[in-house]
């Protein structure tokens, strides 16, 4: 605790923490805000899933390019474009009604996704220096994860009790406030990008990176199924209000898992930890198809969240151990491009399956995809990522936490 208090006493740190919160809150609310608005407008879970998926796939396909824009032009110009564009598109979405227009505008929202977290990461290094970097990244990650718990609760309450259209407006307001705070911050305006060590796509040439990208694609498909299955199944049983506590349970458990692993000793290498945690994820997700919204699903999601919290830390430590030199920012951005794309596909597929086939089949798909990810890690990825089978240095752990923090833009 003393380390965090010392950190908060440094010039610019409190403002950096406060300035990033509204934008992160908007990101934590956008999926459910879109889902509830589209379902209320069209009455179709499938279209709601397609709209949510369109946002995600458009955002993920261009995440690497937005990260590269920050590295090349600094933060002020890219953020000054993406933030107002994103806000305007949300307002436009709240006014359209046809299925085609809804999906099209949702895709535009994804294309305009402001790289808030990608921008926050290098500012911590400038604000606190190398000696306090790991504490700063840990604080930032905790604050980001807190919004993933609070945001869905706010989104669900406002959508169901005030209005889904008003929820979109609230989400846009959070991003606008956060964007102004980020752009006006001297720390952001004065930040100078490091010299480029390659093209925007050079990280894709590394075979180890492509292995991680393939694993992320498999995992993303399962996670997309899960993200849409929770609100979709709750809606089918006329209990949409259960979406928020279920999503919050998943997010809260993942925070706890990350904190547990983050405080561990170096006795487990990143690769071994990644393998074991992937097995834990598979076992936790196995009974998911036999659960229903309520206590049974909540218990299963808590187990999955805890396991994912373990896996995420180890995963980014593996990335840090094997990524190409000069790709500290672009590596995680391009991994999100791949994973986010299949996540979007999983979202659209999951909504269709829930709506037209069976909710339990969608949950079974989650279990199958997560198990496939673990099998791929154990049988194919691990033997080819031996560089990660060693303890990380303190600076490498700091960078890994930063990558974890920047998973969402």
Observed structural traits:
409 residues, mainly alpha, globular
Describe this structure in words.
The chain is an all-alpha fold. Helix content is 78%, strand content 0%. The protein contains 17 helices and no strands. The protein has helices at 2-8, 13-42, 45-61, 63-73, 76-93, 99-111, 116-128, 133-161, 164-184, 186-189, 207-236, 243-262, 270-285, 295-322, 330-356, 359-381, 394-405. α5 runs antiparallel to α6 (99-111). The longest helix is centred in the first third of the chain and has 30 residues, at 13-42. The two termini are 28 Å apart. The model has no long low-confidence stretch (mean pLDDT 84).
Secondary-structure topology with pairs:
Blueprint: H1 2-8, H2 13-42, H3 45-61, H4 63-73, H5 76-93, H6 99-111, H7 116-128, H8 133-161, H9 164-184, H10 186-189, H11 207-236, H12 243-262, H13 270-285, H14 295-322, H15 330-356, H16 359-381, H17 394-405
Helix pairs in contact: 2-3, 2-7, 2-8, 2-9, 3-6, 3-15, 4-5, 4-15, 5-6, 5-9, 8-9, 8-12, 8-17, 11-12, 11-15, 11-16, 12-14, 13-14, 13-16, 14-17, 15-16
